[in-house]
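Notes from the 1:1 (GR / supervisor)

We went over the backlog. Supervisor wanted to see one worked example end to end before approving the batch request, so GR pasted a single chain during the call. The sequence is below; no edits were made to it. Supervisor asked that the structure be written out right there so they could see what the output format looks like.
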Amino acid sequence: MSSEQILKNTNADILDEFNASIMFDKELYTQDIKGSIAHSQMLCEQGILTKEEQLEIENGLFQVKNEIETDQFKFSLEYEDIHMAIENRLTQIIGEPGKKLHTARSRNDQVATDFRLYVQEKTLKIKDQLKELVSTFVEISNKHTTTLIPGMTHLQHAQPLNFGYHLLAYANMFKRDFQRFESSYERNNYCPLGSAALAGTPHDINRGSTSEKLGFTAPTSHAMDTVSDRDFALEILFNISTSMMHVSRIAEELVTWSSYEFQFIRISDEYATTSSIMPQKKNPDVPELLRGKTGRVYGNLISLFTVMKALPLAYNKDTQEDKEGVFDSVKTIEISLKILNEVIKTMIVNNDKMESACKVGHLSATDLADFLVKKKNMPFRTAYYITKDVVEKANSLDKDISELSISEIRESNDEIKDIDEELLMYLDLRNSMNARTSFGGTSTIQTENQLKDFENWLKNN
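Structure output shown during the call:
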């Protein structure tokens, strides 16, 4: 063989590898077989296939499925994608009837159906995982409706909260994520099969029958839009990215809370590691990795946005690039939600450390200003500056504002030299937390009301 022939053969091999998707879209084999069985049943109902041909096709497809799941199926670049690989093997098994399966469909609507089925199935699974995670946050929150923790803004101590309330902020985030996946499922639950290449088919098919068999709400309404649409894939990538952003935020808190400077929690040994050279160290590797995984799902979302941004109608080969990122993001969030759930369940909460931290940063200072507004009818801005004087007094005595005596408070500003001792109750940290009784606030009563709402939501979803 000449060097020119060798180069030509080598280039052909490279092109086959470049063009084929079989090595990653084989992930869709169950959806492809499910869609083909439904399609064959519809063709039979319409008199396009005989009953005998349909049964041969269906039984042959079950054999192919078994071969794939028992590692007997040979995946080869020769057949380019999972659709052609399955159809070719089916024809080898049953002969001529296998060649009739592709009647009234194209690989364009076939892949759109397979991929949409995959996305819909994963949407439901991720939704269930999110509900389980919300349930865990609710369970832990129920135990900590009176446990004090410093609430922060700008990473500076701001006001006292209860820890259950803090955790419910994340329960709300993951509840919204659940609702996003739920909304996406309903919006995207329409069947592409029967759209054919881009303009429908002249065959007398019943798209409603196929749609019903596959569990869709109805067929899609426009063939050209259907075969070129990947909004459903972008939606699951966006939903995953948003959920992973929330995972990353709680992971960051877990890293911070478990540090020596905070010691608010201790991460279970199962989800932390020791240093390779410093035996005294315990590293929050799992939360750090959860935080880091967020970057890859963002990348997958931006990648597909970029692929789709300038595609003319209808189908283009570019959309072959839609699947790997979705497969990767789905696997990433599935394992991340599972692990985060276990980390939260097994963490040990250090109530005393949290409460001690509340005595740093004058967390009840706002309560003094509110007291002056309510009890002394002062303008808030005047009360604000008086409170600053009291804080400076506390700093000079190396005390927290909640630890000042009434005489020390009176000494800080002439306008409050006769202030009532009732003020001391307002400056108490636990009273400060429980004073936030407005709807959605951090008081124990309001937190318990929020927990009841979550428990009702969990029962009804």
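Supervisor's comment: The beta strands are 148-153, 156-162, 190-191, 218-219, 265-266, 273-274, 282-283, 348-349.
Batch request approved.
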